[in-house]
Amino acid sequence: MSPTAGAADTHDPLQALDNQRTTSISPLLSPALLRQEHPVDAAVAKTVAHGRADTVDILDGRDDRLVVVVGPCSVHDPEAALDYARRLAEHAERVREQLHVVMRVYFEKPRTTLGWKGLINDPDLDGSFAVNKGLRLARQLLLDVSALGLPVGCEFLDPITPQFIADTVTWGSIGARTAASQVHRQLCSALSMPVGIKNSTEGDVQVAVDATRAAAASHVFAGINADGLAALLTTSGNPDCHVILRGGSAGPNHDPETVADTLARLRGAGLPERVIVDASHGNSGKDPVRQAGVVGEIAGRIGAGERGIVGVMMESFLAAGRQDLTLGRRDELEYGRSITDACLDWTTTAGLLDELAAAVRAR
Ligand SMILES: O=C[C@H](O)[C@H](O)COP(=O)(O)O
Ligand SMILES: C=C(OP(=O)(O)O)C(=O)O
Predict the structure, then answer these.
(1) Pocket lined around ligand 2, Cβ cut-off 6 Å
(2) pLDDT-derived band of residue 2, with 50, 70 and 90 as boundaries?
(3) What does this protein do (predicted)?
(4) Count of helix runs (H) and strand runs (E) in the chain
(5) Share of the chain above pLDDT 90, in %
(6) What's the gap in Å between 41 CA and the centre of ligand 2?
């Protein structure tokens, strides 16, 4: 008798073997339905198409400007995000000869352990997880911001989400926690926009270089189609991916030596030599005062002629800093202040945009 025969004898053959820990399965609207309800109009299409083309021109060195990805760590209040977008759109127009400004409109937050996972996952900020509502709010905000002529950038975290919103997104990002994920690298190979890929939270830059290389190749993988049905996707690869240096647990990595080392790694991998520096996260210790310092330092280096840095990311909102969310108590939140990472306030951000623009003019 085998050692497991006893256990097998007591097993109920009719007992369900799957969905043992899934407490409910409910309908998700289809990407096609969402796109029909919230369509891209001609103005939005122009913002997205031109925004992507301009970004690629900067990445490839045909355009001497800087890409600046700037905006809240996360969107929790679409009205405040649109208020911010109006100010940013106006300022972006003033510095358009030097900067290609893309607004961070982030709906999916990768958490270190647990926490609110963003507006798509829990739009009512109360643990009710009204995902269909979240998708509708997210798509409408992406359309509203793009309609201002301001291109948007999103982090892609859930591999299903892009079918719902990607046609409105000018620039994408893969975060530090998913840069090593094959699922996300395959996804990048399919995305129609340039995508920045971050170094790991520990500060490993090679993982982002490897991801950039993997994303440039073609892949075949399972996903969903516009009707939300399981489908096999065959991709051609994305040549417009690039590394974002975001610092790590060992400290910042925006220094000239790490930038040069990253460019050498990219060259070694046969990839274009360009990086975006994220002034927040591990490069600032999530301190907005230090974030402003990083932007100032990068502006100085760009003004002095440094070329490998093609873009800068900033976390910025209307008010400085951050506040804690208590689920179900959104009415207690202060208007325009981040509920995830601490942000620069608008006035400081406008000054930093001017500083970056002056640096580009100087070089
Ligand atoms: O930018 C966002 C955060 O740094 C990231 O989502 C991790 O956040 P957490 O460490 O607060 O979970
Ligand atoms: C989650 C983010 O950053 P990172 O992946 O670098 O932690 C972000 O930019 O919102």
Answers:
(1) 73, 106, 110, 155, 175-177, 198, 246, 281
(2) very low
(3) Stereospecific condensation of phosphoenolpyruvate (PEP) and D-erythrose-4-phosphate (E4P) giving rise to 3-deoxy-D-arabino-heptulosonate-7-phosphate (DAHP).
(4) 11, 10
(5) 95
(6) 30
